[in-house]
Amino acid sequence: MAGIGTAGTGTTDVRQYLRGLAVFAGDLPDFDPDAAPDRPEALFLDWLTGAVEAGVREPHAMTLSTVGADGTPSARALLLKNVDRHGWQFAANAASPKGRDLAANPVAALSFYWPQQARQIRVTGPVAPEPAGNSAADFLARPPGSRAEAVAGRQSQPLHDVRELERATELALERVEREPGLVVPEWTLYTVRAERVEFWQADKQRRHTRLCYLREGAEGEGWTRGRLWP
C-alpha cells in the first residue's frame, strides 16, 4: 500500500487518499421521521438501543464541546452517564479545563456518531451542575482505578516523568482502597438541558434524513419537531 504524503513526493496525495475512503458502507437502518416520538430523549434511547444491538462499540461515547472564557472552543470524547426528560448527563472534575470552560460559559454541545449505522445525534443547551450528593454517588459508582485517577488529580498538567504518574496512581489507589467512601470534592455531575436535538440518518445517495427537535412552551417542557434539508 502506498504511503500518505503530499503531492510530488512519490506517495499518495492526501486529498486523493481521503476521497478514496469508503463512507456509508453496508446496510443502513431505516428512519421514518413521521413515526418519531414527541420527545427527543425517547428517540435517542430507541436509537441507542438499536446501536447496541447492531454491535456499535461504545455507543455511549460522545464528543463534548465547550467554550472557554476567551471564546476558544474545545472538544473531547467522554461517556454519557444518563438521559431522561431532564437532560443528558456527563461527569467531570470542575477544576479540569472542561470544568473551567463550563464555569465561564455554562453551555455545551454533545455529538454522537455511530459509523456502522451512519447515524449522528447533536444535542445543544445550557449546562448545570447536579447537587453534591448526586455527584458523589456518580463518583463512587466508578471503578477503583478511575477513582484513583481522579484522586491523583493534575489533569491536563504537564507530565515530565512517567514514573511520577505511576507513583501518584499507586498512592491514590492505595488511598481509595483504605477509604472506600472517599469522594473528590471537585467531581461534578453535569446535566445538559437540551434546547435543540437533531437526529441525522445518512443515505448512500446523500439524501440524508434530518429531524430537529426544538424546545418550546412557557415552561419549556414542550417540543416541536421538523425535518431539515440534508
TrEMBL record:
Keywords: Flavoprotein, FMN, Oxidoreductase. Binds 1 FMN per subunit. Residues 187-230 form the Pyridoxine 5'-phosphate oxidase dimerisation C-terminal domain. Its cofactor is FMN. InterPro entries: Pyridox_Oxase (IPR000659), Pyridox_Oxase_N (IPR011576), Pyridoxamine_oxidase_dimer_C (IPR019576), Split_barrel_FMN-bd (IPR012349). Belongs to the pyridoxamine 5'-phosphate oxidase family. This is Pyridoxamine 5'-phosphate oxidase. It comes from Kitasatospora phosalacinea. The lineage of its organism: Bacteria, Bacillati, Actinomycetota, Actinomycetes, Kitasatosporales.
